[in-house]
Specification:
The radius of gyration is 21 Å and the shape is globular. The strands form three sheets. Strands 1, 2, 3, 5, 7 and 8 form a six-stranded mixed beta sheet that branches. A six-stranded mixed beta sheet has the order 10-9-11-12-13-14, covered by helices on one side. It is about 35% helix and about 20% strand. The longest helix is centred in the middle third of the chain and has 20 residues, at about 180-200. The chain is an alpha/beta fold. The model is unreliable at about 205-210 (pLDDT under 50). It has nine helices and 14 strands.
Length: about 300
Amino acid sequence: KANNQGVAMAGGTHILILNPDTLIAEDTLRNVLQVSELKKDMGVLGVRFIDGSGRFLPESKRNFPDLMAAGLKLMGISRKYYARHIAEKETAAVDILSGAFMFMKKSVFDQIGGFDEDFFMYGEDIDLSYRISQAGYTNYYFGGVTLLHYKGESTLKNAAHYQNFYGAMKLFYQKHLDREPVSERLIGLIVNTAIRIKSLEKTKQAGSTKSFRKWIYFGNNQGIFDKIQNAYPGTTGEMMHSLPDFSISTDFLFYDSACFTFKEIIKFMSAHKDMLPRQRIISEDGTFFAGSDLSHTRGQVVVF
């Protein structure tokens, strides 16, 4: 609902729906605008996502969730749900894009009536992508831009969360697919079973309390280096003034965004995703750092 209110106030020809738990490079908007101008039939444009550890997020591009794909996804099998036929850094037409980053013309958004406000927190991106396709437009995945998405890490994975998440899928099918009694009952059974199973799982918190011994600060501010050392006494830190092109053996990485662009940081994280250390980005004013360890756990913000 709030997104609809914001778009109604917007005066530009294009709009970007962007989650608050994201980080975009300095040239992202310029690049997506250039690509969108080449796609005359464009509905929504999405980009490549990585999580807080630098790993690619497959929900960047998804297939239309027919009953089979959605049912398997709800039971934890996702091979038909994600658009794996499209390479990570490819640009191609795709069925469904993530609501964490949706770039489109305002006229397209207005034409289909914006987000369906019956969807509270999840499923609205599937519904919007589907309705835009039904209106005759083509949705595109643009793998030439990478966005850091902490992916729900600010959301506690409790029973209410799973009720919203799986309930949204049920709402989508009730709205768009044939309402055959058997299908209705099957969808309801799958969704309700998934909710019960997921709600019983132990909530996973961030790994921020795990002990570590070695860390690297990428930057050139001795004051920031000292702040990290004071925040984690008993650990050993090292300062590096540049982002290396080789693998590093350490437990924790801190990037100073006053010294490096977001584009440089995102590129480095993506290229070194297999190092698997914990990674945090320090704010430009040096007052806090933020990040996360896994895409299914809550994130962390630490104020110096």
